[in-house]
Design a protein that fits this description.
By secondary structure, the protein is an alpha+beta fold. It has 5 helices and 8 strands; from the N terminus they run E-E-H-H-H-E-E-E-H-E-H-E-E. It has a single domain, classed as Gcn5-related N-acetyltransferase (GNAT) (Aminopeptidase, 3-Layer(aba) Sandwich), CATH 3.40.630.30. A hairpin with an 8-residue loop joins strand 4 and strand 5. The longest helix has 17 residues. The two termini are 16 Å apart. Bound molecules: coenzyme A (COA).
Length: 180
């Protein structure tokens, strides 16, 4: 089973010049400032709408959700079943995140980026592509909810190709890696 390397990857925001460190999610501890930042980011309208509204319904994303996500990230690295990363800003707090959602040779990816860091999504997902390629994954897949144009634009920038629609209406995307 492919496993990505755990060394931090430096990300450079293409417009602002800010630098971020992409690190395995299990290295992030649930300190109060971390939980506070995660709750703030995940309640931003765009993130909440596309990622958390279906799960949270009428209630906001809360500290327990953030703790659960950190535990999910740690369990994935421990068991080798999924691999999540977080992009930390200069203060060491989360700004964006991405993951390989399984250890299949062509796993689905996930990603989000805080509004204050917009533009970081593409370099972050490109770094994820490079990590996956080096680890030996043969391709990556993505599923996008209907209407999520920003997500589709990111995938195009990262050279994913549209691969039709799923029966549930999500659009499917694929990027081969290496010789795959
Ligand atoms: C999808 C998502 C990750 C894209 O992140 P991103 O950082 O905006 O992606 P990109 O790297 O492609 O950035 C391009 C955008 O940033 C803008 N941008 C780049 N640098 C910028 C800067 N310094 N200041 C302001 N805007 C900037 C670009 O103009 C472009 O804006 P547009 O989307 O309005 O055209 C983000 O919108 C998000 O987290 N959405 C909610 C979660 C989600 O949908 N996840 C995917 C589920 S399938």
């Amino acid at each position: 089973m492919p496993v990505p390397v755990r060394s931090p990857v430096l990300l450079h925001h293409p417009r602002t010049g800010r630098t971020y460190r992409l690190v395995p999610l299990d290295t992030l501890t649930p300190a109060p400032a971390v939980l506070e930042r995660l709750v703030a980011l995940c309640n931003e309208p765009e993130l909440f709408r596309w990622l958390f509204a279906a799960r949270c319904g009428d209630r906001p994303y809360g500290p327990d959700d953030a703790r659960g996500w950190l535990e999910w990230g740690a369990a994935g690295w421990r068991g080798g079943g999924h691999f999540a990363f977080v992009a930390l800003d200069e203060s060491g707090l989360p700004a964006a995140a991405c993951d390989l959602q399984s250890a299949a040779v062509e796993p689905e990816i996930g990603y989000w980026c805080g509004a204050g860091h917009r533009g970081l999504g593409t370099p972050m997902v490109e770094a994820l592509v490079a990590l996956a390629s080096t680890a030996g994954f043969t391709g990556l897949r993505a599923r996008v909810r209907p209407g999520n144009g920003r997500s589709e634009a990111l995938l195009r920038r990262c050279r994913f190709a549209a691969a039709g629609d799923a029966p549930d209406g999500f659009s499917l995307w694929h990027r081969p890696l290496g010789g795959g």
